[in-house]
Amino acid sequence: MATRSPAVAPAPRVDPGPIVRVPAPAVDPAEAGKTATAVFAGGCFWGVQGVFQHVDGVTSAVSGYSGGNAQSADYETVGTGATGHAEAVKITYDPKRVSYGALLRIFFAVVADPTTLNRQGPDRGTQYRTAIFPTTPQQKAVAQAYIAQLGAAKVWKAPIVTRVERYRGFYPAEKYHQDFLVRKPDYPYIVYNDLPKVEALRVAFPTHWRKQPVTVYPVG
């Protein structure tokens, strides 16, 4: 199982690094209802959750597992890479404040590298793949159209390997994984791999940025 604690010293300041400039989705119809749900897998769920907790219009971001069944949805079992699960984040949002397409754009711009197969940063295995789990037929159509749009625009030199997968349910991760970035911003893995993503969100998407993160549990 991949390690999550590379021996790196905390950076003196957060540098967002190179920011991938991706176009807005050409297909992004409005969603009905007061709330909607998106499920994304983009490597270690600590950073994915940490970014979307700072997106204005997001009312909840929960780390968990998607792609497999309930019986295998625990950290140790998913870590074997044999469950079908990916570490994922379930995002509840107000579609009148942020669209599904905008969430996808943030995902591809600052959350994940869509060109690395079963790998993100230092983490390896199918549980760290990038994947979109649409919760409605409309989301599926938007995600497929956007991946095709990004591929045609050749935003990355390598081909996009992020898949749109059938949504089989979402299973929240253990409590100690929730709000990890908010609770432990000085943790070396977070400093090196994930704080730059949060800073990239602030820099690249100022209209979607919220300074105060929404958390699963009260963080004092």
UniProtKB/TrEMBL annotation:
- Give the molecular function GO annotations: L-methionine:thioredoxin-disulfide S-oxidoreductase activity; peptide-methionine (S)-S-oxide reductase activity
Q: Which UniProt keywords apply?
A: Oxidoreductase
Locate the Peptide methionine sulphoxide reductase MsrA domain: which residues?
A: 37-187
Question: Which residues constitute the catalytic centre?
Answer: 44
Q: Please verify whether the record's keywords include Oxidoreductase.
A: yes
Q: Which InterPro entries match?
A: Met_Sox_Rdtase_MsrA_dom, Met_Sox_Rdtase_MsrA_sf
Under Enzyme Commission nomenclature, its number is: 1.8.4.11
This chain's function reads: Has an important function as a repair enzyme for proteins that have been inactivated by oxidation. Catalyzes the reversible oxidation-reduction of methionine sulfoxide in proteins to methionine.
Q: What is this protein called?
A: Peptide methionine sulfoxide reductase MsrA
Q: Which organism is it from?
A: Rhizorhabdus dicambivorans
